[in-house]
Amino acid sequence: MTHHIIEIINEQDKIAITKSHINLIREAVITSLQAENIKYNCEIGLEITDNFSIQAINKEYRNKDAPTDVLSFPMLDKEKLPRLREFIDDGYFNEDINPEYDNILLGDIVISAEKAMEQSININQSLERELAFLAIHAVLHLLGYDH
């Protein structure tokens, strides 16, 4: 049985993010990894931020000077991604493992709580649904999927 580590921090104070939101996001991420049949223990860092901060990140890394809802920063090379689904203990991922936890560093995710709230209102859905959707979307990007 896998034991994924999902480190979630809320770095914004514009939208109320509760422990329930954090638990839902964590569950959405873990369920995504399970649905994708990931056999290795993975580690993902997830930051909840505001529009100002995500805009700065978006500008720096994507040269887009606008806030966005979610960004994904994969840490694994794309050619390694298929091996996550077939557990083979041969040291293939040794350089990708966080020695503190013995988990593969899959990547980082940044979500704008402000954008999530705005989008949830626009599509008449709950903030919870939008946060879970964005987390799942980002995990799929970490696993090599594209639009």
Euclidean distance between termini CA atoms? 30 Å
* Number of distinct helices: 4
In quaternary terms, these chains amount to: single chain
Radius of gyration equals 15 Å
- The CATH topology name reads Collagenase (Catalytic Domain)
Let me know the largest β-sheet: 5 strands, mixed
- What's the helical proportion of residues? 25-40%
Question: What is the number of strand segments?
Answer: 5
Give the full name of the CATH homologous superfamily.
Answer: Metalloproteases ("zincins"), catalytic domain
Average pLDDT number? 96
Q: Which range does the strand content fall in?
A: 15-25%
- Structural class category: alpha/beta
CATH-scheme architecture? 3-Layer(aba) Sandwich
- Shape from CA axes? globular
Report on the structure:
By secondary structure, the chain is of the alpha/beta class. The protein has a single domain (5-142), classed as Collagenase (Catalytic Domain). It has four helices and five strands, in the order E-H-E-H-E-E-E-H-H. It has helices at 19-35, 51-62, 113-122, 127-142, and strands at 5-10, 42-49, 70-74, 97-98, 103-112. Strands 1, 2, 3, 4 and 5 form a five-stranded mixed beta sheet that branches. It starts with a strand and ends in a 5-residue tail after the last helix. The model has no long low-confidence stretch (mean pLDDT 96).
